[in-house]
Amino acid sequence: MKTVRSLVVLAALVISMAVAAGLPALTGTQRTLPTSVQRITSVEGIDEYSLPNGLHVLLFPDQSKQTITVNITYMVGSRYENYGESGMAHLLEHMSFKGTPNHRDITQELKKRGASFNASTSYDRTNYFETLPATNQDLQWMLDFEADRMVNSFISKKDLDTEMTVVRNEFEMGENSPFGVLRERMMSTAYLAHAYHRSVIGYRTDIENVPIERLQVFYKNYYQPDNAVLTVAGNFDESKALDHIVETFGKIPKPQRTLAKFYTLDPAQDGERSVVLRRSGNIQVTGVMYHVPDGTSPDFAALNILASILGNAPSGRLYKALVETKRATEVFADTFQAHDPGVLEAFAVVRSDGDINSARDTLVQTVETFAETPPTKEEFDRARTALLKDKELTLNDSSQLGFELSEWIAIGDWRLFFLDRDRIRSVTQDDVQRVATKYLVSSNRTVGTFIPTSSPIRAEIPPPADLGAMLKDYKGEAAVAQGEVFDPTVANIEARTKRTAGPSGLKLALLPKKTRGGLVVGTVVLHFGDENSLTGLTTVNKLLAGMLNRGTSKHTRQQISDELDRLKAEVSFRAGVGEVAANFETERANLSTVIAVVVEMLREPSLPASEFETLKQETLSDIEYGLKDPQAIASTEFQRLMSPYPTGHPRHVATLEDEIAETKSAKIDELRLFHDEFYGAQAGQVSIVGDFDEAETTKLAYDLLGNWKSKKPFARVPEVYFRTDGQRKIFEVPDKANALYRLGLDLDMRDDDPDYPALLMANQILGGGALKSRLADRIRQKDGLSYGVGSQLSVDSLDKAGSFTAYAIFAPQNLSRLETAFHEEIERARKDGFTEDELQEAKSGWLQSRKVQRGRDGVLAGRLASDLFLDRTFTWDAELERKVEVVTTEQAHAALNKYIDPTKLIFVAAGSFGSTGQ
Fold first, then answer.
1. Which residues pair with 740 in a beta bridge?
2. 484-541: per-residue pLDDT in tens?
3. Whole-prediction pTM value?
4. What are the φ/ψ torsions at residue 420 (nearest 5 degrees)?
5. Does 206 share its domain with 311?
6. What is the C-alpha to C-alpha distance for residues 115 and 138, in angstroms, rounded to an integer?
7. Is there a contact between 134 and 66 (Cβ–Cβ < 8 Å)?
8. What is the extent of the structural domain holding 294?
9. Secondary structure of the chain: what % helix, strand, coil (to 5)?
C-alpha cells in the first residue's frame, strides 16, 4: 500500500541511465514497437515500456490463463495528504467509480460484462483492477475505460454528498475492531512527523468536511499518466496490447505541473512510547512496534526472516513463549515494508480473563532478547523456505503477481520483488542477528504500556538506498514455464475431464492441463455418518478438522509444516455437515508426495492432547470475540431463525454462548472415537486440475484411499424447508460504531425447479450484482447508507430447501432509513417488475461471471468434486445457462412475487441502537 512522486523521478533516472549507458533495448523475442513506445527492461517474462506522456507499462503474457487482468497503480496514497485532507486518497478511490462522460454508470458496465473488479488505497499507492475473459474486445474495453477514468472522472459535489456517508460507514466498520484501532493508535504514536502516523481511511471530521474543490485538485494533480504504472497480465497478444495502450492512454497529454517532493522523516526514536486503548470487547490484545528502514533496504530480507522466526506457529518463539504457556491464544509478527522507513510489529491475543500484563511483558522480553539467542539453523531454514515458497507460488499466478507488483511499485520499483527474493536466498543467520541487535532495542519500541529509562539507546534509521545503482543491469532469472491456452467452456471441460469410480465407492474427476509453473490444485472430500449417528457431534466434527494438520502417527505438526514448505504446497481442511474436505495446491513434481501427506493427515492424525488444548483456546478466543461483534451476533441469530433445527441436530445453529460451552466441554477422546468410527473414503470424491500424470495420479488415489472404509454407514443429512412467519429482532451491542442488518426467508425450491432460472435473474437485478443492483443503487449510491449491501439466492441440488437473503452494514442511527429503503425497493420490484435492459444486463453479467469462475482452477476442482457427489457433469451448467438466456421479464417478475413474500421475511439487526432512539 504505497506511492510517491520521488519514486517516479527515481524510476525515470534509472531509465535515463540505462539508455545513456547504451544497454540492450530489449531481451527475449525481438518485435517492432509502436513509434511512440520505448522498451525499458525485461525481467523473468515481464516487459516494461514507457510512453512519451510518462506512463509506464508492464506486460505479463500468460497463455495458461483464461482471463486478462488490467491493474493500474497510481503513486498516491494517504502519505500525500495534507492537513485537513486525511482520507482524501481513499475517498477519491470511491469517487472514481462514479462515472465519466463516456462511462456514466461504471458499476453497471462492469457488472454487465461479468467482471471481477475492485480498488484499494494504502499509505503509498492507489490501485484499480478488472478481470475479464481473455478476449481482445474485453482488453480494449478495459484499457479504454481506465484511460478515460484517469483524467475524465466526474468528481462532483453531488456524488461526494452520498459517497462521503458510504466512506464514513466504512470508517465506522473499522472502529468496531479492537485490534484495528489499537494498531492505528500504535502507528500514530510510533510516528510523530511522518504521514504514516495517519490511518489510510482518515479522520472522521476530514471525511465529513472535505471540500469538493480540494478533492478535484488532488485528483487532477495525481491521476495523470506520468504518475501511474499500468500492468496487463493474462492471456493476450503483447503487440496488440501495446497498440491498444497507445490508442487509449497514449492520447492523454503529459501534464505540465510538477509534483511536490516529500522529505519529512521521523527522527530516531529516543525512548519507549506507549498507548492504552479502552473499548468494549471480549478479547485483549497487546503489541509492540519497532522502527526499521524503508522497503528497499538490504536489511529487509533479514527483517522478514526475523519476523517469521518470531511469529510462526507452532515453532515460532512467540508461540512457544505465549501460546504454549497459555498466556495468549494467538500470536503473530510481521513487517511493514514501505516506501519510507516502516516498522516490525508483533501482537498477542489474550482471552478476557487472561493476564494482559504478563502477556505484554513476555512479548517484549521474547522480542528484545532475540539478539542474545541467535536463530538456530533449523529456525532460519524454516523461515527462509516459507518466504521463498510464497514468492514462487506468486510467480506461478500471473494475475496475483500483477497485484503484488503494485506493492513493489509503491515501494520504488516493480523489480524489487525479484531482488527481494534474491536477497532472501543470500541472507545469513548473522544478518538476522545483526538486524535484531540494531533495531529491537527498548528506546525504539512502542508498546501498550510506558516504561521509563535513564539510559536510552537510539536506533538510527539509514536513508533510502540509491535505486538506480541497486537495480542497474538487473535481469533476474529465467521466466517461469508457460502453460497452455485452455478455454473454460463447458464443452472443453467435459472433453478433458476423466471420471472414474472404484469398487469401494471412491470417485475421481481428473482434468489434466498444462499450467504456468506446473501448478496443480486438488480437493479430497469424505462423506460420513447420518442424521442419527451425527446427532450432538457438530463441535467434535469441527474440532477434528482443526486437528488434522497438527501431527500424524509418523510426523509432528512442525515436520508436516516444514515438508509442505519444502514441497511448495498449501493444504487446508474444512468440516461440513457429515463431511470433511481437504484442499491442496502444489507443483507437478511434488504432487504425488503432497497427496500422500494429505492422506496421511486424513487417515492417521495423532490428535495430541497438548495441541487439542491449544486449538480449544484459539477457538474459544474466536467465538468470544463474536460476543461483542455485531456482525457475528446478527449472522448467528439470523441463521438460527432461518434454520431452526432442534438442538443436537447436525444442522443445528448454536448460540455463541452454546458454542463456547460445547468447545470447553469437548474431550480429545471424543475426537479420537469420531475419527475411528466415521472417517473413510467409500463415499468420497477426489478432483484434481492442472499439470499432472493422469495414470499415475489415478493409481495413487485408489491405492491410498480405495480400501479405507468408515465403520458407520453414510446417508446424507437432508435439508429441511421451514415455513417460518415474519419476525423482526434487534440485538443491542454496546459501543459499536457499525451495525449489521440481515433479512430473508426460506424457499420451497430446488435448483431443478422450473422457476429457478427466473428467480435467479430477479435476485441478480434486485441485489445480486455486486455494486450494481437496485439495492446498491438505492442504499449505497443514492442514499449513502451502507458500504456493503446486496442479496443472495441459495438453493440446494438435492432437497427442496433454499433461501433468499439480503444484508447491509450501516451506522446504527440509520436503522429506520435503511429498513425503509429495503422495504420500498422490494415492493417496487414486486409491483413494477423489471425492464428489458435490466434483465439483459443481469443475464450478461451472470453468464460472464460463471465463465470467469470456470477459469479458476481451484473453483473448478471444487465443482468437479461436488458434481461427482451429485452425479452431475458440467452439461448441467450448460442447460441452466440456456434456461437463463430465455428468461423473460414477465417470468422474473412472476417468480419474485411467487416466492418473495414481504410478510414472511425475517429481519435481524445488531448494533449500538440504545443511544440513537431507534
1. 809, 910
2. 999 999 999 999 999 999 999 999 999 999 999 999 999 999 999 999 999 999 999 9
3. 0.88
4. -60, -40
5. no
6. 10
7. yes
8. 273-471
9. 45, 20, 35
